[in-house]
Amino acid sequence: MSKKLIVVMGMVLAMTACLATVATAGIPFPATSTCTITITQFPTRLQCLTSWDPDVVRLTPAGSTAVPVFDRVSITVRVRDAFNAVVSGALVAYSEQSGIVNIANGGATTATTDAAGLATVTLHAASGYGRVALCADGVQLCNVQVRSPDVNKGSTPLLCGLGTASSAVAGSDITNPTCGFLANFGPVTVGVNDGWDINCDNAVSGSDVTGLLGKGGVLQYFGDTGTLGALNSCALP
Ligand SMILES: [Ca+2]
Ligand SMILES: [Ca+2]
Hints:
Order of helices and strands: EHEHEEEEEEEEHEEHE
Shape: elongated
Strand order of the largest sheet: 3-9-8-5-6
Number of domains: 2
Bound molecules: calcium ion
């Protein structure tokens, strides 16, 4: 299923403050720009859309060839500047904003805004969990919360980060004593163990490992390995 929502970023006070200091024609401005977020789920997990705000996007880990893929998110942006004029020719791309997350090579598209300031980009593959931002010419316009079954690089606490290079869905994702699924079993506390709640039922449990009805858990992607891209900053290259 898919769901659409429109996010208008920013606040009047913030816009007023920015207008007084850094407003520049032709520069993307969050408070006047809009994001239309469409999440398509494979398979459907309505709880990821109804139980969490913002909605959770479950991403296929790097290198996975699993069919069906996990979720896919498309964001259509209309980019405007601080004076409410559309910005054409802006580079639109995803970047890792926070948490332990890295977009996989080939896991997202980029685009350039058209004459109406519109562009659409999609994201389907990343490892880790956290927030992924949508950036236009290096300015963050909105973000989405993401989770994947690939939560670490190996079996020791030192390998709880993802970084770059290759990563795999393996036994250590389940058994790492600090950042494995087993170590995070229990009711979800946001900011503590929500990144492991793959099926969004507000608890980390065996169903996140096995997948309900055999789908959507760690085991569905077990053994998948691939290359994580360089960390993508919102700053222009
Ligand atoms: Ca892993
Ligand atoms: Ca769960």
